[in-house]
Amino acid sequence: MLANSKRDPLETLKQFTPARIGVGRTGTRPLTKDVLQFRTDHAAAVDSVYGTVPDKILSEFNLFSVTTQVESMEHYLKRPDHGRLLADDAKAFLQKNCLQAPEVQVVVSDGLSAKAIEENLSDVYPALIDSLESYNLQIGTSFFVKGGRVACMDEIGEILKPKALVLLIGERPGLMSAESMSAYMCYQPGKGKKESDRMVISNIHKRGTPPIEAAAHIGTLIDKMLQQQTSGVHLIV
Amino acid sequence: MTSIGLDIGTSTTKLIISELLIAQSHDQFTLPGCQIIDRRVTYASSIYTTPMVNEVEIDVEQLTQLLQKEYKQAGVTLEQVHAGAVIITGESARKQNAEKIVHYLAEHAGNFVVATAGADLEGVLAAKGSGAIERSTQIGEIIANIDVGGGTANIALCQDGNVIETFTLHVGGRLIRLDKDGQVTYVSSYLTEFLENSFNPLRKGEKASFEQLSSICQLMAEETVNYVKGSRKASSLLVSPHTRSAIHPDTLLVSGGVGAMTKGKKPETLEEVTVHGDISPLLAYHFQALGVSQAPETARATVIGAGMQNTEVSGSTVYIKSDRLPLKNIPIVDVPVQQEEEWEPERFQERVQQALTQASTLYSEDDPPVALALSHFPYCSYTMLQQLTKVILAEFTACFKEAKCLVVLCEQDIAKALGQALAKQSKTLDIICLDQIDFTHGDFIDLGLPVAGEAISVSVKTLAFSS
Hints:
The complex is a heterodimer.
Chain A: H1 9-14, H2 32-50, H3 55-60, E1 64-67, H4 73-78, H5 88-97, E2 104-109, H6 114-134, E3 143-146, H7 152-160, E4 164-170, E5 181-187, E6 198-204, H8 211-228
Parallel strand pairs in A: 1-3, 2-3, 2-4
Antiparallel strand pairs in A: 4-5, 5-6
Chain B: E1 2-8, E2 12-25, E3 33-44, E4 48-49, H1 60-74, E5 81-88, H2 95-108, E6 114-117, H3 119-130, H4 132-138, E7 143-148, E8 153-159, E9 162-169, E10 176-178, E11 184-187, H5 192-197, H6 210-229, E12 251-255, H7 256-260, H8 270-273, H9 280-289, E13 293-294, H10 301-309, E14 311-313, E15 319-321, E16 327-336, H11 345-363, E17 371-375, H12 382-399, E18 405-410, H13 415-425, E19 430-434, E20 444-452, E21 455-461
Parallel strand pairs in B: 1-5, 5-6, 7-12, 12-13, 16-17, 17-18, 18-19
Antiparallel strand pairs in B: 1-2, 2-3, 2-4, 7-8, 8-9, 10-11, 14-21, 15-19, 16-20, 20-21
Helix pairs in contact in B: 1-2, 3-10, 6-9, 11-12, 12-13
GO biological process, one term (chain A): amino acid metabolic process
Function (chain A): Catalyzes the deamination of various vicinal amino-alcohols to oxo compounds. Allows this organism to utilize ethanolamine as the sole source of nitrogen and carbon in the presence of external vitamin B12.
Subunit structure (chain A): The basic unit is a heterodimer which dimerizes to form tetramers. The heterotetramers trimerize; 6 large subunits form a core ring with 6 small subunits projecting outwards.
């Protein structure tokens, strides 16, 4: 059927994906403009890994900062296990400054893309707080974890004992989007929790999952987690 | 979900029963989604002559009997029908019939069946039912679906699965009726001007020759095809004023009762023309002669469209804080969010104010009075959401002081965030906020009950009964 089409069928297919398809070539090589675009996107991805979240955004939402056992970005990349553990002084700091055993704890982390937090936090965070409040949930003291991995949720769970935890974390950047954020959620996080206990809404950015709608939906999921007292694959959604 | 479609037309009435299969996507990583994945006709009635009391009034009693018989035959009870539409077309869509039919529906067709009328919607439903819309998604062409029935031809231009333009012409098989000797028993007054212009006056009581009828049908078909193709910019046969856009369809399909006859052989004699006591076979032949192809579904196109395609499901992340569902016949008030380059809350406020003030003169007594439909929705930041919410609430409460329920519709996936924001700022109103609804071709919306998760069934429709 496509063969009869007046419109270029490749153009139609391209509308379905931002991926680099049908870019053409000259001889055996891609076109210069595509090579340059590829390099630009790659550089943006690298930049977001090595970037830092501006203090201004964190202070806008009163988020104080703690660190993990990671000391540098090289260290972070080589030792994922260290990104899951908080620095020694962080534990005492959280115990002292945070509400203990709240219904919902919100944590923000740069993860693999500081850019993701920079771009999306100002839309997702306030909308998330609104959403949680609309379900009348008690929200703990939110903070920022520098150099965190997803499973740092477990140690935070051990320290603060929240019923549910939401971690907003920068995703591994791709060549399509370097500013994509994920929201991981877990009921009673703690040591020994499995990947299957966690839930995620991924690809949150302007051209992906709409940030404020994602935030609104997180509230619904958390409410369900608290009602059913479970999360991950056990949660009936 | 069982859905029925009933098409009460000028000349014929038909019914279909279909099953809609709804699936919820359980992708772990994205927002939940919900859609109708299969629509299947499970029962199609035979085609009946519309029972009439007199020239214009529908015989509701006979219609009831007919429907009861068909429900029984199909093995469906009223309680099982969860959705569907009755489309009242052509001459039947008169005001004196409207009220009767609406009452009748609630009692005899099932609670969630909606009444619709209006030539635009008819064209859209016919294009959906005939297969024209589906074909437009498969090939990159603009397809015109011409649904020729007894009284009117409803045209819808389709591209990439969407209807981009609709209009209606007074072209139909029963506009001229005659007995088998060619004695004319009826000529629609809509044809008078057209016939005079074509030097072919034909009046009731006269005897028509085969050649005369053939030439009239040819002219009617040509007029239609030329107007649809856009090579003619005006026509005396237009039902309502219409400015033909510059869109030129690549393919023309014909459906409807006349469409069904396009594959027959050419009528050669008056007797062959008048098998149904009208000019349908001859009109069909002339469409065929002009190279218009037959649509995949013809006589039942509109009823299939009404039964299977009229019901949609909303997005899955929606906000419903109200026990009022189901709600019927809520007028849609369309307000563009962002017409300018940049988002300007003041300009949006002006538009909301203007639209709602106008609507408040018409619908202030109902609750919810209107459904505010937000079109031209750009990317929405948290700041913008707050401004949007403030404007909507301020203007809504100013225009509808008595209202206790606010309904907001949008195309983009934003309803839950918007609903939560509205509820946060207004503690007194019931809020219903739905997304992923295409309201381009409707004036009213019916909201059903949840069908899967939070998603509810909706029907967007028109209700233009002529006087």
